[in-house]
Amino acid sequence: MWHEGGGPVFTIRIKQRKKSLFTSHCINFNVIPMTMKNVFVVYSVLIIILTVCITGCSSLQSSPIEQNNTPTITTLSQTIPTTTLGTQVPPPPTTDQRSTISTTETPKNEVITMTLNSAEKKISLGNSIGKPGRSLLILDITIKNNDKKNDFKYTDSSFVISYKSGLGSLTAITSQYANNPGLINPLISGTVMAGSIDDGRILFGVNATSYAYKLSVVDSSGTELTSIDNIYVP
Q1: Can you give the pTM of this predicted structure?
Q2: Number of domains the chain is built from
Q3: Which range of residues forms the domain containing residue 10?
Q4: What burial letters (b/e) apply to 18-51, b meaning 16+ CB within 10 Å?
């Protein structure tokens, strides 16, 4: 189709279309170089990371962990059992000779009971020396008054020692040694209250060769209230 001015309208349209196509192609060519740059940057970063990893691994391999070559010393502790060798040697006997029997004798009645706590013989006591052939027999006793109403009064004569060999009997001489520092807690004279107890030491002068005795507690009339037989003091 022809224009009245002499030029074909079709030719003009074709030129415009080519121009638009050219312009479109130019835009695509600009996009391609930018994509290649991005790929190049990514590759460069990956190469740098790979290089750092390889370098780090090489440095770790070149620096091994130091090992402690110091030998370990193990100490063995041995427990040595305690062994008792032989038997224990008893201590040497002292000069005080004590009784081997300490019992409470069955009372003759239920009013007074007596317990022998200890017994010993001595040649001297404190600043006093016994007579030749005589020994001081010291008895530690406990007296219990079982009577709930009446008290029990005692003196030296209330305590009687008898020889088992039949040589006779003796009363206590505790009051003669009352002020002697060697006699502790002497029972000189006193009262055991009803339902109560009293304890202390009484003293007799006996034959040095004697060793078996009987101890009795008597009232003011000489009647035996209670006794302890078979007292042995070597």
Answers
A1: 0.56
A2: 2
A3: 1-58
A4: eeeeeeeeeeeeeeeeeeeeeeeeeeeeeeeeee
